[in-house]
Amino acid sequence: xxxxxxxxxxxxxxxxxxxxxxxxxxxxxxxxxxxxxxxxxxxxxxxxxxxxxxxxxxxxxxxxxxxxxxxxxxxxxxxxxxxxxxxxxxxxxxxxxx
Length: 98
Prior knowledge:
Layout: H1 3-28, H2 32-49, H3 55-75, H4 82-94
Helix pairs in contact: 1-2, 1-3, 2-3, 2-4, 3-4
């Protein structure tokens, strides 16, 4: 395994760590806007990465994406975020999670 691969994997893990932490906090505090702000880049990254580097994070990211959609359905969301919610829904659907 090359050093470049190891470095890339660690950078991806750091991204997952930061975004999943943000989504978890938003879900816990029932803050749908923050959940969407952090959830969209999380599922976009997971969709692009497809578990190639860190499969466990991929599954968690997609599961959190589902939980973001559940929170939005339950709590509602401000109009400016509706397009981002649809992007999350589309990514999850295209990835077979919906």
